[in-house]
Design a protein that fits this description.
This protein is of the alpha+beta class. It has two domains: 177 residues, Sandwich (Jelly Rolls); 113 residues, Homeodomain-like (Arc Repressor Mutant, subunit A, Orthogonal Bundle). It is built from 13 helices and ten strands. A six-stranded antiparallel beta sheet has the order 1-2-9-4-7-10. Strands 3-8-5-6 form a four-stranded antiparallel beta sheet, with no helix packed on it. Helix 4 runs antiparallel to helix 5. It is elongated. GO terms for molecular function: DNA-binding transcription factor activity; sequence-specific DNA binding.
Length: 297
């Protein structure tokens, strides 16, 4: 692997975009080599004795070798598949094991949208080291960033921001999959999701669904929300609203009948919740999709 790094100078327009990238790079550090390389500018270069405080976010990905990260909060072992997520204003230092060296990929960025995405509770729980494992998609994100950076075509910062968002998403997905993969609760949640899609018109007792799977509802609800991002009740509600929306758009069925066949007992409750979720009442949505000649009638 050929070493690469590039420090960027984002414009004011780039900074106003919400995410701007300051540095991208990768390096293969052989065993017994001094680390970090002295080619990095001040503000990025650090010695092991002094450590470093950054004014940006950095995501580093270790794909080969082992090492260590130290912060004020503790020491963290690094291995292939480890992600280091560094946040602004936090002292840290890291280095590869002298016996193994390592291969690292990194990208540094700032911006209000970056702060928003990195405030995710699940990411914050796992800081500063996330053991994602080796994922070709994550490596591909870095390589794409390097390619965009080297070409530096007009608007490249905006394209790079999309790569950063995808990278954060892949890391979050890896955390979620690691938490659930191969565990009984994953099967229970998947089975429940399918059940809700198949039986949404019915009067569904979510607590009974949990009991039928020999787990308490409180634990089931908590894990379902961690898996899907919403509670079982809200998931069922979204399924019903989605089905109702399809019927309103694609059929001429009466709105009251649509409410009943999608699991709503009250047309008033259905209309209120439908507007909360879609921004329009059922009647407004149907009016919007009518053909011009039908509206005139």
């Amino acid at each position: 692997m050929k070493d690469f790094f590039k420090y960027l100078t984002p414009s004011e327009d780039d900074k106003d975009w919400g995410i701007h990238i300051n540095v991208t790079g990768s390096s293969h550090v052989a065993p017994d080599v001094e680390y970090p390389l002295k080619a990095h500018p001040s503000g990025y270069y650090f010695s092991w004795n002094s450590g470093r405080i950054l004014h940006e976010y950095q995501i580093l990905y270790i794909t080969e070798g082992n090492g260590i990260l130290e912060t004020k909060e503790g020491k963290y072992n690094l291995q292939p598949g480890s992600v280091i997520l560094l946040t602004p204003g936090k002292w840290h230092r890291y280095r590869p094991n002298k016996n193994t060296g390592w291969t690292e990929y990194y990208i540094g960025f700032e911006g209000k949208i970056a702060r928003h995405f990195l405030s995710n509770a699940l990411l914050k729980e796992n800081l500063p080291v996330i053991h994602c494992g080796l994922h070709e998609e994550i490596i591909a994100c870095y390589n794409q960033a390097f390619d965009i950076t080297q070409k530096a075509k007009p608007g490249y910062q905006q394209v790079l921001s999309g790569v950063v968002i995808k990278l954060i998403g892949l890391i979050l997905s890896a955390i979620k999959n690691k938490e659930f993969s191969g565990k009984p609760i994953e099967t229970i949640i998947e089975k429940t999701r399918q059940y809700l899609h198949d039986h949404y018109p019915e009067n569904i007792d979510l607590e009974k669904l949990a009991a039928d799977n020999d787990i308490g509802y409180s634990y089931f609800r908590k894990m379902f929300k961690r898996f899907t991002g919403i509670s079982p009740g809200q998931y069922l509600l979204q399924v019903r609203i989605s089905k109702a929306k399809d019927l309103i758009i694609t059929t001429d069925q009466n709105i009251k009948d649509i409410a009943l066949i999608t699991g709503f007992d009250s047309i008033y409750y259905f209309s209120r919740v439908f507007k909360e979720k879609t921004g329009k009442t059922p009647i407004e949505l149907r009016h919007n999709v009518l053909k011009p000649e039908e509206k005139e009638e």
